[in-house]
Amino acid sequence: MKSYQALSEVQADLSSGIITCTDLVQQYLLRIEEKKHLNAFLEVFTQSAMQKAKEVDEKLKNGTAGILAGMVIGLKDNICYKNHKVSASSKILVGFESLYSATVVERLLAQDAIIIGRCNCDEFAMGSSNETSAFGNVLNPLDTSRVPGGSSGGAAAAVAADLCLASLGTDTGGSIRQPASFCGVVGLKPTYGRVSRHGAIAYASSFDQIGPLTKNVYDSALLLQVMAGKDEYDSTVSSRPVPQFSQSLTPPSGKLRIAYLSDCVDANGLNPEIKDYIYSVIDKLKKEGHTVEPVAFPYLDYLVPTYYVLTTAEASSNLARYDGIGFGYRSPNATDLESTYKKSRTEGFGTEVKRRIMLGTFVLSAGYYDAYYSKGQRVRRFLQNKTNDIFKNYDFIILPATPGTAFKFGQHSADPIAMYLEDIFTVQANITGIPAISLPMGSHSNGMPFGVQVFAPHFAEDRLFAFSQYLMERK
Ligand code: GLN
């Protein structure tokens, strides 16, 4: 099948009659089958996708199709789609079917996107390599001995391998941007409060955001503009008007002020080729007359610990609902109520999820609450203030998305801390709530891609997209 790089290419073929949506879905289904070994999809929604394709073909004929007509999308397996299974890649949700659709799903369907299936991910979105999924590893399509990143590993791999044109992931600490960097696609984490979380299976509610993985900046902007905005089912969504992001990708006028965090770019653990590449981007921007300056942010060491104290606390509370009674798995070995709870959770959750529930329960426990949870909240506020201070003087912050390229399977499995440090450059955006994007700009001599990351102030996605487009044109 043709490798579509943008929705505009699909729509051009649809309007010239070269293909129909029905053909397109059939072709994607075939390709998913051919690439089954990647394990990117846990399930394809053949019936509903074909049904929707037929409907959209009809609408295209009579001129009533929505702006996403022809966009075939994969959903990370923690986003609900009514009457379809969803499991957060966990055994504990085996057999569970969504009773309603996430707000983002409703909005995509209303604009005639076609949802083709659910993508493998780390269990409950906890991980950086997709290795914590209860349903096996996802292979990186660019080198199958390497991980695709996580937790939205299947969603990123699916786009990179042409199994769908775009996908939705969730990003609590980097789960859209890190796999985007590892698989060579565009990954956006919107501002916290830009997109409704209604229907996304919660990991850490004050960090989680849903966002798109796409092949280009325009499609990312288009998807965000469809998904974003006020929602009566999620009171944390801002009622600010949603700009037509895809219409404002013209290069930023005038000279920009861009900060780069020297503590990140000069960090010891950063792969030297990635470091050199970031410096080459900085040089190009300077040559074009923009101000690009190093800014000290000597708090790198606090980011990952703060993230793990606070997100595990929230996770321990969010995951309390999986008790063997209300959802999914119930242990056949249980004999009474207490053993139903204990055995269902023991057998249903994987090791990483259990580790985080225990850590979260510990930091919230009476004796340690002040020492860990309260302190974590204070550090979060401090980091937010320090990040906002940078935006008083600069339009954007530029930094690597990941310390290295996609690593080999098993490389970090024995050492959770080494795995957690994979998030060192991404968690700042979740701790502070700002929007961040990973752009597939770099290619390493080992043959793998890597992302350049850009942070923007809260709710400045319009400028973030315009600048991203500008950068992509200079890669
Ligand atoms: N890799 C990070 C973690 O393990 C981020 C996960 C996420 O963003 N959902 O928590």
Structure description:
- By secondary structure, the protein is of the alpha/beta class.
- The protein has a domain at 7-247: Amidase signature (AS) enzymes (Alpha-Beta Complex).
- It has helices spanning 7-15, 21-34, 46-61, 103-110, 153-160, 177-183, 217-227, 262-265, 272-287, 300-318, 337-348, 351-364, 370-393, 416-420, 427-432, 461-472, and strands at residues 41-44, 72-76, 114-119, 166-171, 186-189, 209-214, 257-261, 291-295, 396-400, 436-443, 449-455.
- Bound molecules: glutamine.
- Glutamine binds at residues 125-128, 150-151, 170-175, 203, 423.
Strand content: 5-15%
N-to-C SSE string, H for helix and E for strand: HHEHEHEHEHEEHEHHEHHHHEHHEEH
Helix/sheet category: alpha/beta
Ligands bound, unique: glutamine
Determine the mean pLDDT.
97
CATH class of the domain at 7-247: Alpha Beta
Shape: globular
> How far apart are the termini?
27 Å
Q: Low-confidence spans: pLDDT under 50, at least 5 residues?
A: none
Total DSSP helices: 16
Looking at the overall shape, the CATH architecture of the domain at 7-247 is Alpha-Beta Complex
Radius of gyration: 21 Å
Roughly what percent helix? Answer: 25-40%
CATH topology of the domain at 7-247: Amidase signature (AS) enzymes
Order of strands across the main sheet: 1-3-2-4-6-5-10-11-9-7-8
Question: How many strands in all?
Answer: 11
How would you characterize the largest beta sheet?
11 strands, mixed
